[in-house]
Specification:
The complex is a heterodimer of chains A (463) and B (227).
Chain A: H1 20-47, H2 50-59, H3 71-108, H4 124-134, H5 145-162, H6 180-201, H7 205-236, H8 241-246, H9 256-259, H10 261-277, H11 289-292, H12 302-327, H13 338-345, H14 353-381, H15 389-420, H16 423-453
Helix pairs in contact in A: 1-3, 3-4, 3-12, 4-12, 5-6, 5-12, 6-7, 7-10, 7-15, 10-15, 12-14, 13-14
Chain B: H1 2-31, H2 48-51, E1 60-62, H3 72-76, E2 82-88, E3 96-104, E4 123-125, E5 140-142, E6 150-151, H4 169-177, H5 212-226
Antiparallel strand pairs in B: 1-4, 2-3, 3-5, 3-6
Classes of the chains: A mainly alpha (463), B alpha+beta (227).
Chain lengths: 463, 227
């Protein structure tokens, strides 16, 4: 059909401009939903702690928490609400990541990408999800019905459980486990179970190959990842996510990444291993389209398929948040040490307003860093082609594992050195930050050259 | 050998770093550029039909005012998506009138064979191509009204050109008049005339009893009659 009259150049000043209402609606929902979710996490995660609920029972209900009959019910209720919010957060962030990744990737390929649903095609992820929910839930005739149905639950559980120990801010964490990072690794491994189940139960050669590759890959890469994670753990002397962040400072030269040259190596190893564990390109062998159709999810459709995708893209946030926790100083706000937080909290049961403000700040810092690392992951995906299976194994066992061990042992020695020469920490931080800045400058120059060599210029219009 | 292996090992790391360096800077540079693609439908600088080459073969269009009713296009169509029915013009018994001129654009394969034999250029390909319809039957274009058949065009031998409506305007008017989700016609347009009934078995054949031959002929003709 011919173009609608509203889109003819004579009526609107800019060709293809979205109507103002669509732009405003997209902006309102695009920023509103994350804002609501972040606000819910901000309010609920400190308030769902037992101490706060006890205070609520004592002061609002006028009962003694020790004898109050419904105390456990209140505990459970608050935890359930927080869990609901966190799972929703994961799902929504996953959807928005899909949209963002598709937009970024299309620009990297000189296309425009999603642009039909809402301004900038923002609601494409909603449309995709709704479409998948309306599809028939097919189970292949020869599949192992029970396992085929069960596999997505494992995957989703493994994903959702990571949010238990995932920090959002200074006091914003569902549960600050003292084995936080260990718990993270353990829970993420549950995803492999689901993928392996999916591959096996589909009774399809592609799915089986995908599942096997995924198992080989994820289990292999857990070794360098685990050893690389030991580096910041050694530097902090704790496995707790919040404690690891507390041991770092707010400024880049106080981050784990830069205070120890071996932590830089460990970060690279950790980053690569995370890509492999998340089945991201260049390690997307389990779902290599050119060989395996869609790998372990070849036979899936409808809601179960949607769950796999939700987890795959939701994992980006988890991966980025863990990397930020371990290496990038987490939620540390400049000029706001622990004593500032303690002073702002006040003596009462309910923290003061300044404390909430500080929490919002720390949450913003953490989210900004996480989004930065998330973009790094997206960027790498659309840069590198998929590697072969043997290359994947060689990279893991011959490069990452030995270097991870080197970084591990060297960090032990480094900590001994720091005990004798306390100034080395700051000096290394300054040197490494400066050299990173120099490398970044060279990188920007290289990028500019690539642009100019083609006779192009920086032009960010036409979104 | 160990020496080269060592060089290979370190070289691989160097290669990896280098490919990251160049790869990331290339993708970043493309991220910062303006995309080269033009976003169809509503960001194109002008309607796409005006950007297409002049000889683009889009939807067929018939200008009834210069159609001679010669049926050459119908005969040329390899997939029989054109159906033409001629009848006597009640106003002028010497002339014939076209009471049906249907083109099934859903079947049309845009080969252009119907355009070639047309003596006046009444049937032409346009550059219209956007014809999404919810009901496929809406893609049958009826260029003649069965209620008021149009008289065939008398070709003037000395004419240097035939006055044709602007190419594309007629088909566009048809699309504009019909929204994409318009209801389809309840009945399909009449099928093109059925091929002539198979000849009855030759009577001369001695093997066939004489009584069976008329029966066969009757059987062959009944389906055509029942239509």
């Amino acid at each position: 059909m011919t173009a609608a009259p509203a889109n003819t150049p004579t009526r609107t000043p800019r060709i293809g401009a979205n109507p103002r209402g669509v732009v405003l609606g997209t902006l309102a929902i695009g920023f509103g939903i994350p804002a609501v979710l972040f606000a819910a996490v901000l309010v609920l995660s400190p308030l769902s702690k037992p101490l706060m609920i006890d205070a609520f029972i004592r002061n609002v209900l006028g009962q003694d928490p020790a004898t109050f009959g419904y105390r456990n019910l209140l505990y459970g209720l608050s935890v359930a609400i927080l869990a609901f919010v966190l799972v929703n957060f994961g799902a929504i962030v996953s959807g928005m990541t899909v949209w963002w990744e598709m937009r970024v990737s299309s620009r990297m390929q000189s296309r425009v990408g999603y642009n039909r649903v809402g301004a900038g095609g923002f609601f494409q992820w909603v449309a995709d999800a709704v479409k998948l929910l309306l599809k028939e839930d097919l189970i292949p005739a020869d599949a192992d019905q029970l396992l085929f149905r069960a596999a997505p639950y494992f995957v989703l559980t493994g994903f959702a459980l990571t949010f238990v120990a995932l920090p959002f801010g200074e006091s914003l964490i569902a549960a600050d486990l003292n084995v936080g990072i260990f718990y993270m690794i353990a829970v993420t491994a549950l995803v492999v179970v689901g993928i392996l189940l999916a591959g096996w139960s589909s009774n399809s050669k592609w799915a089986l190959f995908g599942g096997m590759r995924s198992a080989a890959q994820v289990i292999s890469y857990e070794i360098p990842a685990g050893i690389a994670i030991m580096v910041p753990v050694l530097m902090a002397g704790s496995l707790s996510m919040q404690e690891i962040i507390r041991q770092q400072g707010a400024w880049p030269w106080q981050w784990n990444l830069f205070t120890n040259p071996f932590a830089l190596v460990a970060f690279v190893i950790f980053f690569v291993s995370q890509l492999a564990e998340g089945n991201r390109t260049p390690f997307d062998l389990p779902e290599a389209e050119s060989e395996l159709v869609a790998g372990y999810l070849s036979e899936y459709s409808s809601f179960r398929f949607a769950i796999y995708f939700l987890v795959e893209f939701g994992n980006l946030w988890v991966m980025a948040a863990v990397a930020v926790t371990l290496f990038f100083g987490g939620w540390q706000v400049p000029f706001a040490g622990p004593e500032v937080f303690a002073a702002a909290k006040g003596a009462g049961d309910l923290p003061g307003l300044a404390w909430w403000g500080l929490q919002i700040l720390s949450m913003g810092v953490f989210a900004a860093k996480t989004l930065f690392v998330l973009n790094l992951i997206v960027w790498v995906r659309w840069t590198l082609p998929r590697i072969r299976v043997d290359q994947m194994m060689v990279l893991c066992w011959k490069y990452l594992v030995p270097f991870a061990f080197v970084a591990f042992v060297a960090t032990l020695l480094w900590q001994i050195l720091l005990a004798h020469v306390p100034g080395a920490r700051t000096a290394t931080g300054a040197v490494l930050v400066a050299s990173t800045a120099v490398v970044a400058a060279f990188f920007i120059r290289q990028t500019r050259r690539n642009l100019v060599a083609m006779g192009d210029r920086v032009d960010l219009t036409n979104w | 050998m160990p020496n080269t292996t060592q060089r290979g090992y370190v070289g691989h790391i160097g290669d990896t770093v280098k490919s990251f360096w160049h790869g990331l800077s290339i993708t970043a540079s493309y991220l910062l550029r303006r995309p080269v693609t033009v976003q169809y439908p509503d960001r194109t600088p002008m309607p796409v039909r005006d950007m297409l080459p002049a000889r683009y073969r889009g939807f067929l269009e018939v200008d009834a005012s210069i159609c001679t009713g010669c049926q050459a296009c119908e005969r040329a169509c390899p997939i029989a998506c054109i159906a033409i029915v001629l009848e006597k013009d009640p106003a002028n018994p010497k002339l014939r009138a076209v009471s049906q001129f249907d083109i099934d654009e859903a079947k049309c394969m845009f080969c252009g064979l119907c355009v070639e034999p047309c003596p006046t250029g009444a049937i032409q390909h346009t550059r219209e191509f956007e014809g999404s319809q919810r009901h496929v039957r809406n893609l049958v274009f009826r260029w003649a009204d069965p209620m008021s058949p149009f008289p065939v065009y008398k070709v003037d031998k000395n004419a240097e050109y035939y006055p044709r409506a602007q190419l594309g305007s007629l088909v566009r008017a048809k699309f504009d008049a019909k929204p994409w989700d318009a209801r389809g016609p309840k009945f399909l347009p009449p099928a093109p005339p059925a091929p002539p009934a198979p000849k009855p078995a030759p009577v001369a054949k001695p093997a066939v009893p004489a009584a069976e031959a008329p029966a066969q002929a009757a059987a062959a003709t009944t389906p055509a009659e029942s239509k």
